[in-house]
Design a protein that fits this description.
The chain is an alpha/beta fold and 399 residues long. It contains 13 helices and 12 strands. The two termini are 36 Å apart.
C-alpha cells in the first residue's frame, strides 16, 4: 500500500518547494500592464535582486528559464567566432558550452572532473598561455546542479587577475543564488545569471542576467544582437514594456515579490546560514549511511560541496527503483541523476540528488531524510545505521 496521502515533498534541485504565500500571491486577476502598481512592483524586484546579488550594476530580465539566461548572456557578449574558455565541473557547464558552440562561439575547456571544484592555479596558467588575449570570457557555474560541485568564485577571479588577462568572468548561479553567498561586485564578476525556480522559490519562467560596465563595454555591438535578447533596453527601459520586450509575466512577478519579501524578512545572512546547516545535515546522513554500504557523497572535499544540492553515488544500487518506491510509497521525490549516464554509474541508475534549497525547514528536511532511510531499508540497500540521527545532531547543534 501507499502511505502518501498528505502533501508530497520534493527534495529536487529545482523547481524547489514554493511557499504557500508565494502560491497565493499569484491567485489574482491580471493587472494593467501599462501603468500603475505593477510598475512599482517590478522596480522593487530589480532593487532587491541587485541587493542579494551584491551589485550596483545592471539587471536584465527575460521570460525564460536558465537556458534562456545562458543564451541571453552569450548573445550580448559574443559574436560568432570569438573565443570562450569553459571551467568545467559538471553537466551544466557543459550544457552552457553546448549552447555557445551552437551559436558559433569557439569554445575550449578546462576539465576538472565532476567530483570537485576547479583549480584556480590551472586557470591562471591557461590564461597566461593566451598571450594574444584571444579568450574573450571565462565562464563557469558557482554550483553545478548535476555534480553538486561548488566553485570558489573569488579564487577564479584572482586567477584572471594574476594572469593579467582581460577576459570577462561569467558565472551561472542558477542553483546557488539566494542559497549560497554571492557578491558580484566585491568578487569581480562581470556577468552573472540566475533564474526564478530554485533559491528564489518561484515557478520557472523568469531569467535574470546581471552585468557590469566592463561587460557592456566589451559586449557585442548592439546592432548585431538579437532584439529579444538585447540586454540594454531591458536594464534601462524608457517604457515599462521594455523590461520584458513585450507583455509582462505579471503573475510570476507577484510570486517573485512575495518570495523576496520572505527572504529579506529572514535576512540573507540567516538564509545562507540555514542552507549551510541543512547541507551539513544531509552530508552527515549520507556519510553515516555510507559506513556500511555503497552510498557516497559525489564530492568528497567538504570545501568543494554545494550548500543547495547534494549528488549521491551508490555503486551497484538501482536508485531508479529506490526513487520509484519513495515517490509512490511515501510521497518523496528526489532529484534524478544528471551527468551520470555512463556505464560506470549504471547509465544513471547508481546516483541520485537531494535538493535542500529554498523554502525548507527541519521537519521538511528530516522528514525527507527519514523517508529516504525507510526506502533504503525497504529496497534492501545496504547502509550504515544512524543516518537520520546524524542529521538530527547537526540540526540540534546549530539551531
Amino acid at each position: 500500500m501507499s502511505l502518501s496521502f498528505g502533501r508530497d515533498l520534493y527534495l529536487t534541485p529545482g523547481p524547489s518547494v514554493m511557499p504557500d504565500s508565494v502560491l497565493a500571491a499569484m491567485m489574482r486577476a491580471a493587472p494593467s500592464i501599462y501603468d500603475g502598481p505593477i510598475v512599482d512592483l517590478t522596480e522593487s524586484i530589480v532593487t532587491d535582486l541587485k541587493t542579494i546579488a551584491g551589485t550596483r550594476h545592471q539587471l536584465a530580465m527575460y521570460i525564460a528559464n536558465g537556458h534562456g539566461a545562458w543564451e541571453a548572456a552569450l548573445e550580448n557578449v559574443f559574436a560568432p567566432g570569438e573565443k570562450a574558455l569553459v571551467v568545467h565541473t559538471g553537466n551544466f557547464a557543459q550544457s552552457w558550452a553546448n549552447v555557445a558552440e551552437r551559436m558559433g562561439i569557439e569554445v575550449s575547456y578546462l576539465h576538472f572532473g565532476t567530483d570537485r571544484a576547479a583549480d584556480a592555479a590551472v586557470l591562471a596558467e591557461t590564461l597566461r598561455a593566451d598571450a594574444t588575449h584571444g579568450i574573450k570570457a571565462v565562464f563557469c557555474t558557482q554550483t553545478d546542479t548535476a555534480s553538486s560541485a561548488s566553485n570558489d568564485i573569488p579564487a577564479l577571479r584572482a586567477a584572471l587577475d594574476a594572469a593579467g588577462h582581460p577576459a570577462l568572468l561569467m558565472v551561472d548561479c542558477v542553483a546557488s543564488f539566494a542559497c549560497e553567498r554571492f557578491e558580484m561586485d566585491a568578487w569581480g564578476v562581470d556577468v552573472m545569471l540566475t533564474a526564478s525556480q530554485k533559491g528564489l522559490m518561484c515557478p520557472p519562467g523568469i531569467a535574470y542576467v546581471f552585468y557590469n560596465e566592463k561587460a557592456e563595454a566589451r559586449a557585442r555591438p548592439k546592432p548585431d544582437r538579437a532584439p529579444y535578447w538585447d540586454w540594454t533596453d531591458r536594464a534601462n527601459p524608457g517604457l515599462y514594456y521594455q523590461y520584458f520586450f513585450g507583455t509582462t509575466p505579471t503573475h510570476l512577478l507577484y510570486a517573485q515579490r512575495e518570495a523576496l519579501n520572505l527572504l529579506l524578512a529572514e535576512g540573507m545572512e540567516n538564509v545562507f546560514r540555514r542552507h549551510e546547516i541543512f547541507a551539513q545535515a544531509v552530508w552527515a546522513a549520507v556519510e553515516a549511511w555510507g559506513t556500511a554500504g555503497p552510498l557516497r557523497l559525489n564530492v568528497a572535499n567538504r570545501a568543494h560541496r554545494s550548500r543547495a544540492v547534494t549528488a549521491v553515488r551508490a555503486k551497484g544500487v538501482d536508485c531508479f527503483a529506490l526513487q520509484k518506491w519513495l515517490r509512490h510509497k511515501t510521497g518523496l521525490t528526489l532529484g534524478k541523476p544528471i551527468g551520470f549516464d555512463t556505464p560506470e554509474f549504471g547509465n544513471g541508475a547508481h546516483a541520485f540528488r537531494i535538493g535542500h534549497m529554498g523554502h525548507m525547514n527541519p521537519p521538511m528536511l528530516l522528514g525527507g531524510l527519514s523517508s529516504l532511510q525507510a526506502g533504503l531499508i525497504a529496497c534492501g540497500i545496504a547502509h550504515g545505521a544512524g543516518g537520520v540521527d546524524a542529521a538530527v545532531q547537526v540540526i540540534a547543534a546549530n539551531a
